[in-house]
Design goal:
This protein is mainly alpha-helical and about 375 residues long. The protein has 18 helices and four strands. A hairpin with a 5-residue loop joins strand 3 and strand 4. The longest helix is centred in the last third of the chain and has 21 residues. It is extended. Pfam families: DnaB_2 (PF07261), WHD_DnaB (PF25888). This is Replication initiation and membrane attachment protein. InterPro entries: DnaB/C_C, DnaD-like_sf, WHD_DnaB.
Length: about 375
């Protein structure tokens, strides 16, 4: 009889939390032998080789019967998957990650078995041990020392360049004008140099071009979105202020260079754009990655096609189509709208456009005359 062999795999890295869960929680359910077997399998899996099954049993000091029992304990709690080759006596053991403590304690079955085996006192101790909640009381005051950033008061743009030499990335397909020198003029203390990182500048520029905010207004919104310690910019708060903005610049020599929100506001004779429409236009720029000038052409097309209703479903359908077609200039967008019109005309059957009326034959004329006589007699009798 050929000797049984096995391969052991562990397709993940065991975190500290998972290891704690294995020893302090799973151990009560699977037993020490199964827990030891898991640890040995974890070590042996580091070398991808074929092991003699008897040698593995000797390493864990288990008889074949106890080895099989420990293996099945691991399998029951989804810590191990076992495969057996049908042609030859070879096993494949694949370790599975333990649930993290919080998930284990919330599990409908595992938590109940743990309570049954260890009792409520031990369960409460484990819940307290793995609790992530703050243990401070209402009478406690947070006296933690905040980070002292005064050392960065004299931070200069030259130092910033030394820290991050990469220039701000402005998308090549955008024409929205925004001057950071104007934005930061006289704002050294309000918006310190340490906050002017490349990532922050790019996020500010994206908000400006999407919602059509100029440097003057962005400066006001930005100064209200910095924490008192001047350590970070609250971009979610900044975004909300920008969305609520109504004083947009809507005059330009080429209206298609306006931000889509300013362009739509211009189409509405200066009336503020609804929040839902602003979010829709933001989605078109962020999710569909359409340039502003393309979206402005789409706005024209959508308003005409939907009787000035600016339907969300219609706009998203066209935007997704243009994104797939890689329409990235207003010229391509205009050509596309023209093709829609031509397609509509071409798809109309030839007989639909034929307005020439067929002359009725003599028999049809006679039938109409007889019907008219009957209708006349009926009306006369009623009178």
């Amino acid at each position: 009889m050929s000797r049984e062999t096995c391969r052991i795999q562990m397709p993940f890295s065991l975190s500290e939390q998972q290891r704690d869960s294995l020893h302090l929680l799973y151990g009560s359910l699977i037993g020490k032998e199964a827990q030891c077997l898991y640890d040995v399998f974890s070590t042996l899996s580091k070398k991808e080789q074929l092991y003699d099954l008897q040698d593995v049993q000797k390493i864990v000091h288990l008889s074949p019967t106890r080895f099989e029992y420990a293996r099945k304990q691991l399998e029951q709690y989804n810590l191990l998957q076992t495969y057996r080759e049908t042609i030859k006596a070879e096993y494949l053991f694949i370790l599975q990650p333990p649930k993290e403590p919080q998930l284990f304690l919330q599990h409908d079955i595992y938590s109940r078995i743990f309570l049954e085996k260890e009792g409520s006192s031990q369960l409460d101790r484990m819940k307290l041990f793995f609790s992530k909640e703050c243990l401070c009381t209402k009478t406690m005051v947070n006296i933690s020392e905040p980070l002292d950033v005064s050392i960065l008061e004299n931070w200069t743009s030259k130092k910033e360049e030394a820290l991050d030499k990469t220039q701000i990335h402005i998308p090549s397909n955008t024409t929205y004008p925004f001057d950071f020198n104007v934005l930061f003029k006289g704002m050294e203390r309000v918006i310190p140099q340490r906050l002017r990182t490349r990532q922050n500048l790019e996020r500010i520029y994206d908000l400006a071009r999407i919602f059509g905010i100029d440097e003057k207004n962005m400066r006001r919104y930005l100064s209200l979105s910095i924490d008192p310690q001047k350590t970070k910019i609250d971009f979610e708060g900044l975004r909300n202020k920008v969305i609520a903005a109504q004083d947009l610049p809507i005059h330009s020599q080429d209206p298609y260079t306006l931000s889509p929100i300013a362009y739509l506001q211009q189409k509405q004779n200066g009336m503020p754009v609804a929040r839902a429409d602003k979010l829709l236009l933001e989605k078109m720029m962020v999710d569909y990655r359409l340039p502003a000038e393309v979206i402005n052409v789409l706005i024209d097309y959508a308003l005409k096609a939907t009787d000035q209703k600016f339907s969300r479903s219609f706009v998203e359908k066209v935007a997704s189509s243009w994104a797939r077609l890689k329409i990235d200039t207003k010229e391509k967008a205009m050509e596309q709208t023209i093709s829609y019109k031509n397609t509509k005309v071409e798809n109309v059957p030839e007989w639909y456009a034929d307005t020439k009326q067929t002359e009725p034959d003599e028999e049809l004329k006679a039938r109409i005359a007889r019907l008219q006589e009957k209708l006349g007699e009926t009306n006369h009798g009623e009178n």
